[in-house]
Amino acid sequence: MFVKRFDEITKEMVQECGGKAAHLGELTRLKLNVPKGFCVIADAFTHHLRSNNLEGRIEGIVGTIQFEDLQGVELKTEEIRSMIERAPMPGELDKEIIENYRNLSQEEAEPFVAIRSSVAVKNSQISSFPGMMDTFHYIRGNRSVIENVKKCWASVWSARGAFARHHKGIEHSKSIIAPTIQLMVNSEIAGVLFTLNPVSGEKEEIVIESNWGLGESVVSGKCICDFYTADKEKFNVKVKRIATKEQTYRRAERGGAEWASVDPEKVKKPTLTEAQVEELCRIACKVERHYGYPQDIEWAYEKGTPYILQARRARVAGE
Fold first, then answer.
1. Measured between alpha carbons, how far is 62 from 73 in angstroms, rounded to an integer?
2. Chain-wide mean pLDDT for the chain?
3. Partner of 87 at 20 to 30 A CA spacing, among 138, 191, 201, 284?
4. How many C-beta atoms lie closer than 10 Å to residue 70's C-beta?
C-alpha cells in the first residue's frame, strides 16, 4: 500500500509522509476545513526508483557533482530529473494513485487537484524545505496526475534542492519526498498567517499577508501584498497596509495556473474584511493551541469559505 488518505495520517508520520502531509492529516483529524486529499508515501518513490533500476545510476551521477560548478550542477540535476520523469510508473502504484484520485470527488470523476511536495529528512527533525520543491496547480485527468507525481518526485533533484542539502551537510540519500494530491481550491483570496510576528518575535501578535488569486503570489515573495497585524487576545486589527497589488497567480484558460494582471478595480482594494481577519485568527489560534507552538499557516478563501492548505512551525527571521 503506497497511498494514505489525509484522514489516515497523523502528525507523527513525518518520516513516512513528509511534513506537509503529516500536518494536513493532523488538521483533517481536527475537523478543520482542509481540502480532501491523500499522500503518496515516501516508500513509493523508492519503489519507483528500484523498479526502474535508477538508484545506482543516480548515485553515479551524484558522485560526479561539483557544487562549485553551477552550470554543471544544473545539467546533472536536470539529467537526474529527466530519468525519474521518463521512467514508467510501476503498475500497482499507478493503479493505487488513480483509484484514490477518482475517489476524491463525488461530483467529478476527474476533478482538478493540486500536487505538492511533502518532504523530510530521514532520522532528523527536518520536515520542510520551503520553496525548494515544485507545486503543480489545476491538474486534471488520470495520466496528468501520474505524470505530475513523477515531476514532483523529480523536483527533489532541483538544483536549488541539491544546493540546499549540500549547504546543510545533508546526505542526498536521506531525502524523503511524498507528494500530496489534494482537491484544488480555486481561491479568490489567499495568503499566509503567522501566530507570532516573524520579524520581532512578538508572540501576542498575529501577522497576515494576502493577495488576490492563489497563494503562490504571496509565498513566492514575487508580489507586494496586503499586510495585517492583529492582537491575539481579541483579534483586533492593529496595522493594515493595503498594497497596490498589480500581479496575481490564477487559473489559466489553457490549463494549469499563470501570472496575470490584477483587475483594475481590485488593485488598491483590501483583500480581506475585518471579519475575515478575525475568522482566520480564530482558526489559527485553534491550530496553535493544538500543537503548542507558533504556526505558519497557508490559507485560501473560495466563495467565502476559508480553507487551510498547510501548517508548520513558525520561525522568527534569522533563526
1. 9
2. 92
3. 138
4. 11
Pair 160, 280 in one domain: no
Cβ contact 309:300 at 8 Å: yes
Q: Do residues 38 and 62 both lie within one domain?
A: yes
Examine the pLDDT at 133 and tell me if it is beyond 70: no
Average confidence (pLDDT) over 156-176: 86
Number of domains in the chain: 2
Tens digit of pLDDT for each residue in 181-221? 999 999 999 999 999 999 988 899 999 999 999 999 998 88
Question: Using 50, 70 and 90 to split pLDDT, how confident is the model at 131?
Answer: low
Please give the Cα distance from 79 to 165 (Å, whole number): 18
What residue ranges in the chain does DSSP mark as E strands?
3-5, 37-40, 113-116, 119-121, 135-139, 175-177, 180-183, 189-194, 205-212, 226-231, 237-241, 247-251, 257-261, 295-302, 305-313
- Taking residues 11-15, what's their average pLDDT? 94
The parent domain of residue 232 ranges over 189-313
CB 186 within 8 A of CB 162: no
Q: Assess whether 9 and 59 both reside in one domain.
A: yes
CA angle, corner 306, sides to 303 and 310, nearest 5?
A: 130
Longest Cα–Cα distance in the chain: 58
Per-residue pLDDT, 171 = 84
Pair 132, 254 in one domain:
no
| Cα 130 from Cα 300, distance rounded (Å) | 18
Q: Determine the Cα–Cα distance for residues 271 and 299; give it in Å rounded to an integer.
A: 13
Asked if 160 and 16 sit in the same domain, the reply is yes
Kindly state whether residues 167 and 241 are assigned to the same domain.
Answer: no
